[in-house]
Write a structure and sequence with these properties.
alpha+beta; Cytidine Deaminase, domain 2; 5 strands; globular
Length: 157
C-alpha cells in the first residue's frame, strides 16, 4: 500500500532541500542541487551535490542525503525532494534512482518530489521513474542474505 505525502510534508521537504542547495559545492558545473529525504520515523536528512576536479569523484545531492541517513542507521524512507536551478522540475539521475531503489519497497515505493527553481513541482513514485528496477529481490533466493543464512567469515592472513 503506497503512502501519501501531505502538502505540508511536501513544503517541509522542499524547504529543507532548498536550504541544502545553498551548501552545494559546484564550482565546475555551476549547477547546485539540494535534496531532502523523509524517513519513516519523520526525520529529514538533507544533502547537496559535491563536485570534484576529477569529475566522476563527485556525488549528487540525492545520494548524499541517502548515505547520510544510512550512516545514521536509517533504512526506511518515505519521500525525497530534489531542487535545482532549472526551468522545469529536475529529475534524479540514473545512479541516484538506482540507490533509491535499494531502499524502496515494491508495495510502498519511495515518493519523489522534483522541484524547479521557481517552485514548480512534479510528484511521482520511484516505480514510475525506474520501472523494473534491479534490486535485492533480483538475486536468486540462495544468494540473498537472510537472518540465519551463513555469512562469509574474514580470511586469516
Amino acid at each position: 500500500m503506497s503512502q501519501r505525502l501531505s502538502a505540508a510534508q511536501q513544503r517541509r521537504l522542499i524547504h529543507a532541500a532548498r536550504q541544502a542547495q545553498r551548501n552545494a559545492y559546484a564550482p565546475y558545473s555551476h549547477f547546485p542541487v539540494g535534496a531532502a529525504l523523509l524517513t519513516k520515523n519523520g526525520t529529514i536528512y538533507t544533502g547537496c551535490n559535491v563536485e570534484n576536479a576529477a569529475y566522476p569523484s563527485g556525488i549528487c545531492a540525492e545520494r548524499t542525503a541517502i548515505f547520510k541517513a544510512v550512516s545514521e542507521g536509517e533504512r526506511e524512507f518515505v519521500a525525497i525532494a530534489v531542487i535545482a536551478p532549472t526551468a522545469q522540475p529536475v529529475s534524479p539521475c540514473g545512479a541516484c534512482r538506482q540507490v533509491m531503489a535499494e531502499f524502496s519497497e515494491a508495495d510502498n515505493p519511495l515518493i519523489v518530489v522534483s522541484c524547479s527553481a521557481d517552485g514548480q513541482m512534479h510528484v511521482e513514485t520511484l516505480s514510475d521513474l525506474l520501472p523494473r528496477s534491479f534490486t535485492k529481490t533480483t538475486f536468486p533466493a540462495k544468494m540473498q542474505r537472510r537472518k540465519g543464512y551463513p555469512q562469509p567469515t574474514p580470511r586469516s592472513r
